[in-house]
Amino acid sequence: xxxxxxxxxxxxxxxxxxxxxxxxxxxxxxxxxxxxxxxxxxxxxxxxxxxxxxxxxxxxxxxxxxxxxxxxxxxxxxxxxxxxxxxxxxxxxxxxxxxxxxxxxxxxxxxxxxxxxxxxxxxxxxxxxxxxxxxxxxxxxxxxxxxxxxxxxxxxxxxxxxxxxxxxxxxxxxxxxxxxxxxxxxxxxxxxxxxxxxxxxxxxxxxxxxxxxxxxxxxxxxxxxxxxxxxxxxxxxxxxxxxxxxxxxxxxxxxxxxxxxxxxxxxxxxxxxxxxxxxxxxxxxxxxxxxxxxxxxxxxxxxxxxxxxxxxxxxxxxxxxxxxxx
Length: 326
Hints:
This protein has helices spanning 6-11, 29-37, 51-65, 81-90, 104-112, 124-133, 154-165, 179-187, 197-200, 209-217, 228-233, 249-254, 258-273, 280-283, 301-323, and strands spanning 17-19, 42-45, 70-75, 95-99, 116-121, 137-141, 147-149, 170-173, 192-195, 223-226, 242-246. The longest helix is centred in the last third of the chain and has 23 residues, at 301-323. An 8-stranded parallel beta sheet has the order 1-9-8-6-5-4-3-2. Strands 7-11-10 form a 3-stranded antiparallel beta sheet. With 326 residues, the protein is an alpha/beta fold. α5 links the parallel β4 and β5 (116-121). 45% of the residues lie in helices and 15% in strands. It has 2 domains: 6-207 and 295-320, Aldolase class I (TIM Barrel, Alpha-Beta Barrel), CATH 3.20.20; 209-283, no CATH class.
């Protein structure tokens, strides 16, 4: 018995499993290609400081590594998102994912190029707006997610979004890292899942070995939803969005003291941004979600996809019989 939903048909993939298109180079071509080659849909994180030249190289690198579909995702409230999307479309990418912005300006150009548009949301109102804008798929991201996220948990958010945007397919994100989580999301009405933290701890992700090791050593209790890293860098985010990261020395010093941090950052931002890589773990964000409790080792991305699909299929096949009696 194989895991299959209508999202698989829409995206032309074997399994309804996607890696989150994490920014900053954390989801490079190697990760996207490995996920796609294993039967999921890989997404390159298209938002980095390197810009269009880097994105073109990543798209071409992914195409060298797989002949299966893959996409590119953007942090779309940042300047230049439309230009980067145009680059991806010109390179023949036919799945575009947007987050943190009104998708309306992006839908027409993507559809004109023959691409599907995925839009990640954190509220039901935003989901309705994305549906009205004409997106093809809505990703409902719960607050359990790593990185930047909202305030509503995955369990209540996903079915509410499913009801609000039907018949548009919904992808569940936040707090999912094993087959039980995949199965639960599908039972809530989602047609697929989008995972970040689980794929951070793969050989193909773009983070450092120290970053992977910190994710593996941590649990849900070690994460915090905070604004301190964004205050320190001066990075703007929409209202209601904060970042979930693993607690470290910097967050322990400043979380709850954001006003004082703003004063500090006014004097030390350049110094903070220039921190050496060996200081990353203690002072820069290690973005990870509450699903880090289930991430206990580094694995190849292909093995993660295969295991998630097999575990979810087994749960969906066996669990109902354990619970229901005639």
